[in-house]
Design a protein that fits this description.
The complex is a heterodimer of chains A (308) and B (239). Chain A is mainly alpha-helical and 308 residues long. Helices cover 77% and strands 3% of the residues of chain A. Chain A is built from 14 helices and four strands. In chain A, the strands form two sheets. Chain A has a two-stranded antiparallel ribbon. In chain A, strands 2-3 form a two-stranded antiparallel sheet. In chain A, helix 2 runs parallel beside helix 7 and helix 2 crosses helix 11. Chain A is globular, with a radius of gyration of 19 Å. Chain B has 239 residues and is α/β, with parallel strands linked by helices. In chain B, strand 7, helix 7 and strand 8 form a beta-alpha-beta unit. Chain B is globular and about 50 Å long. The model of chain B has no long low-confidence stretch (mean pLDDT 91). Classes of the chains: A mainly alpha (308), B alpha/beta (239). Chains A and B meet through helix 8 and helix 9 of A and helix 2, strand 6 and helix 3 of B.
Chain lengths: 308, 239
């Protein structure tokens, strides 16, 4: 690591840690949401950005992670938070496996349609399993606990999310730098060449689904704790599109880009709250503009600027 | 080492291969000649598992790999340099080679493989941090061959390695093919330049509309009047 990068990392860590001490509570909540969405964007990017499998159904994984966490906390409140989140992540990963295998045969538009349908199925399932999920009434999520610690304040939840995000980012960075990450990207660049190089394309594409679902499930769990209340209408198709906007604006196939994209979209969402009805229009416009003028997202535009 | 027994391949309704049989011995160089659309590339794609034959069998050392997935076939020691090179354009030269070593990822094996690739193609060492898309056509072809060799195959399937290259580079590619052969690697070579191909190979097969219409030692094929006329552009009878 160069000195400049080290300085940057130290500054980022300082800002991240000091944030709740210097800004009002609402901005702590907003930063928490940015990080939660950042984890989803990372997971989605591993699937769509790295192996070129576009998903319009990640709100479904997000919901499964959220509900799994809520139900685990309600029915097994003694479990420490890390175990609950891990459980929610693994449960979502299992669903990812079940969806990933049939999706192997699908590409492009067909894959988009299948994942879109998956998102709808999850919402319908939540509505119909009302003995478990309380359907439209929604589910109140108890406070997260770790031994004697209760994450009952905005700041404490923020720190919980920071720790999980750091772990997830470290995991993603390690993954993409290794042979596995290279195989993911190789599949995106040329499936034929990946095959003739000995990459088991089917296995890696499925693995991408599983990892992506795991990330999104864990993020869904954090989301449940952060907002404290879950209802199926929070996980509609527009949320899936938002996730896609994050990685397209931020940069497909980039870890840093995922986080930047999540920050841009989350903050924009918040500042556009007054214009609810125009939201899809504004977001659609941003997505089209991003694809036209910065096809590689913020991440690659920044890289190009640095090279000048 | 490699036995192809009467395979049929169809793309949808269109028959691409009908009853094609061929064999390549351990360390042997064999060429596959034929016009465009005769089924040469399809034959290679069937061997490497990219397309599935409807009938017939493909054996490697007696093991049936007709239904084996492409990555398992690489693991058995058969590496395919596909038509059009199929590099990873946004990867650097070195990253391309590293994907080629996907199944031989142990540090020592990778280092050894990179050294061998650099010895065979010194230009790839110079260009190792460059994106593959920025290479010239000849360099890209070399990278494609080097990437396939990273899997340490016992047999290489080469699809039109000289396509679109300047004559000097064609000579260079054939020098490399000789060098690879000298290390004991068998080669099944699809090539439009029949003269060079027959020069490099000990035996050859001629495909026409999906069937093998002639086969034999290179020296014999070179004297065959039909082949002289159709593929070598010479008068029918040898002088």
């Amino acid at each position: 690591m160069t000195r400049a990068r080290l300085a940057g990392a130290v500054a980022a860590a300082a800002i991240l840690l000091a944030w709740p001490l210097v800004v009002p509570g609402y901005f702590v909540f907003l930063a928490t949401l940015v990080l939660v969405n950042g984890i989803v964007a990372l997971g989605l990017n591993l699937l769509s950005g790295y192996t070129n499998q576009l998903s319009f159904g990640h709100a479904g994984f997000f919901a499964i992670g959220g509900y799994a966490t809520a139900l685990l906390t309600i029915h097994a409140g003694a479990l420490p938070v890390p175990v609950t989140l891990l459980g929610a992540g693994l449960a979502t990963a299992l669903v990812g496996l079940a969806l990933g295998i049939p999706c192997l045969r699908l590409e492009g538009l067909y894959l988009a349609m299948a994942t879109l349908a998956f998102g709808f199925v999850v919402v319908e399932a939540i509505l119909h399993l009302d003995w478990l999920t309380r359907g439209n009434d929604g589910l109140r999520v108890p406070v997260a606990r770790l031994g004697p610690l209760a994450f009952s304040t905005e700041a404490s939840r923020y720190y919980l999310v920071v720790v999980v995000t750091v772990l997830m980012v470290a995991g993603a960075v390690n993954l993409v730098r290794t042979r596995t990450g290279r195989a993911f990207l190789a599949i995106r660049e040329s499936e034929v060449a990946a095959q003739t190089s000995g990459v088991n394309v089917a296995a890696f594409k499925t693995a991408a689904f599983v990892v992506s679902a795991f990330y999104t499930g864990v993020a869904g769990g954090l989301f449940a704790f952060v907002v404290g209340y879950l209802s199926p209408d929070a996980f509609d198709v527009f949320l899936s599109v938002d996730f896609l906007v994050m990685i397209i604006v931020g940069g497909l196939g980039s870890v840093g880009g995922s986080l930047i994209g999540a920050a841009i979209v989350t903050v924009l969402h918040d500042s556009l709250a007054a214009f609810q009805n125009y939201r899809p229009l504004i977001f659609g416009g941003i997505m089209v503009a991003a694809m036209l003028f910065m096809p590689g997202g913020v991440a690659s535009t920044a890289r190009a600027w640095r090279r000048r | 080492m490699l036995e192809v027994e009467a395979i049929d391949v169809a793309y949808g309704k269109r028959r691409a291969l009908e009853g094609v049989s061929l064999s390549v011995g351990e360390g042997e160089v064999v060429t596959l000649l034929g016009a465009n659309g005769a089924g040469k590339s399809t034959t290679l794609r069937a061997i490497s598992g990219l397309v599935r034959p409807g009938r017939g069998r493909i054996l490697c050392d007696g093991r049936d790999l007709t239904r084996a997935p492409a990555d398992a076939i690489v693991a058995l020691g058969i590496a395919h340099v596909p038509e059009g090179r199929e590099l990873f354009p946004d990867f650097t030269v070195e990253e391309n080679l590293l994907v080629g070593a996907h199944r031989r990822w142990q540090r020592e094996a990778v280092r050894e493989g990179l050294e061998r690739a650099h010895r065979l193609f010194p230009i790839l060492r110079e260009r190792r941090r460059q994106r593959a898309a920025t290479l010239s056509g000849g360099e890209q072809q070399m990278l494609a061959i080097a990437r396939a060799l990273m899997a340490r195959p016992r047999m290489l399937l080469l699809d039109e390695p000289s396509l679109g290259l300047a004559p000097r580079l064609v000579t260079e590619i054939f020098r490399v093919i000789d060098e690879i052969h000298a290390t004991g690697v068998g080669i099944l070579l699809v090539e439009q330049n029949a003269r060079l191909a027959l020069g490099a190979a000990t035996r050859g097969y001629v495909l026409e509309t999906g069937r093998v219409v002639a086969e034999g030692p290179s020296a014999v094929l070179r004297e065959d009047p039909r082949i002289r006329q159709a593929y070598l552009g010479l008068a029918g009878t040898p002088p």
